[in-house]
Design goal:
The protein has 337 residues and is an alpha/beta fold. It is built from 13 helices and ten strands. It is globular. Keywords: Cytoplasm. Residues 316-337 are annotated as: Disordered.
Amino acid sequence: MSADRGLRPAFVALGGGHGLSGTLSALRRVTDRLTAVVTVADDGGSSGRLREELGVLPPGDLRMALSALCDDSDWGRTWRDVLQHRFTSAGDLDRHAVGNLLIVALWELLGDTVDGLDWVGRLLGARGRVLPMAAVPLAIEADVRRADGHVDLVRGQSHVAVARDPIAEVRLVPEAPPALPEAVAAVDEADWVVLGPGSWYTSVIPHLLVPDLAAALHRTAARRIVVLNLTADAETPGMGPCEHLDALRQHAPALRVDAVIADPGSVDDVDELAERTHAAGGRLLLRQVRRGDGTPRHDPLRLAAAISDVVEGFLGDVGPDPRNRTNGTPGGRGMAG
């Protein structure tokens, strides 16, 4: 954990895709000491094509994380839009993201994954650092339980993400991939680690399946925050907040969770979720973190306020019970212990 308490807290956010981008958009309002550790199992779209053709890490989720951290200026926003731009053509460039091509070009020129991402970060004026969770491209496979009770083996992130039947377990291929040393160091040195929201089995849980990274998550002096999804998706059909927390603990039973953030509109049984959170070693914080337009996405300002509440709650270690649904505003204080 960071030794200099005069500094703003050091955060590490783990995940991928839109979920991680939302977390980073919130955390950049909380701290200027921020590292994103990103899944590298994407096998679809532009990333999948580059991965297959060039044998590189899939760059798409890394690109999205970098874009979420861009400087809030015309320069930063313009380069963010360039990175996110996709070509439309009848040829090989169709649907390729410019940022994916730029990242891979820097990897080839510099011969170093981290240096290449840092160069893109400097171009964007990024308010933080982006790292892959593993040093090699990964594949995801899952045991999926069909309605007739039969268990199918589904291979590939793009297929697992649309399973639409309950997932019993996920695994990585190779089974024990090497973690990126810089990612492990970031977790070791963090004050806070945030997991979620996002695709639970293909973006969040995979971090717990990389042995060296998982070991760092268990031993770090950082406190661990889990941000629960607002709704179920194609890979988590019928799963509520309690089941999401159960799945996390299934894949990492010894991992201590210090705080769980959930939107009260997504929780049917508050007491049950509070009990599951307590069983994992943590406290439940209910806050309205959903966007006001009704879309099932986290609002960066509201999520930033909720994360700040967690930090302040642990610093003060006191506060009222937040499980009252009428007190689900971002400005409320207190956590259930």
